[in-house]
Design goal:
By secondary structure, the protein is of the alpha/beta class. The chain has one domain: STAS domain (Transcription Regulator spoIIAA, 2-Layer Sandwich). Helices cover 42% and strands 32% of the residues. The longest helix is centred in the first third of the chain and has 15 residues. The protein starts with 6 loop residues before the first strand and ends with a helix. The mean pLDDT is 92.
Length: 125
């Protein structure tokens, strides 16, 4: 899937929607991203969004605000947690600017195994 600045791929594994953002995301990119995730979540019941931007995805401040709103929209569509595999710096930005506003648990780490363990816990509840 291609957008103006950022691009991403999306893979659904059981009840986990994995996304792999690449490049810089602006508001238009986030709108496309949100719509694709909503479509992927239809019919899953309870699911978790697992984002893998690592060190290669970035957001404008406006895009971060829209992404936070999208996370809250996902809560009403069956999402039970948001997992984000990111560097320490981007994780700090998310903890300070997004996590306080998101109605879902946010699992933020640079360790994918740790995140998978936490995801499994949320899906088993």
């Amino acid at each position: 899937m291609q957008q103006a600045d950022g691009e991403f791929s999306l893979v659904v594994e059981a009840k986990v929607i994995h996304t792999y953002p690449l490049g810089g995301f602006d508001e238009q990119d986030i709108a496309v991203y949100r719509d694709e995730i909503i479509q992927a979540g239809e019919g899953l019941g309870k699911w978790v969004l697992f984002e893998h931007p690592k060190k290669i995805g970035s957001l404008t401040p406006e895009a971060l605000e829209l992404l936070t709103q999208a996370y809250n929209e996902f809560a009403g569509r069956g999402c039970v947690a948001i997992a984000v595999e990111v560097s320490y710096l981007f994780g700090t930005i998310l903890r300070q600017n997004a996590e306080p506003l998101v109605k879902l648990p946010m699992l933020i780490s640079d360790d994918p195994a740790e995140l998978k363990e936490q995801i499994d816990t949320y899906l088993s509840e």
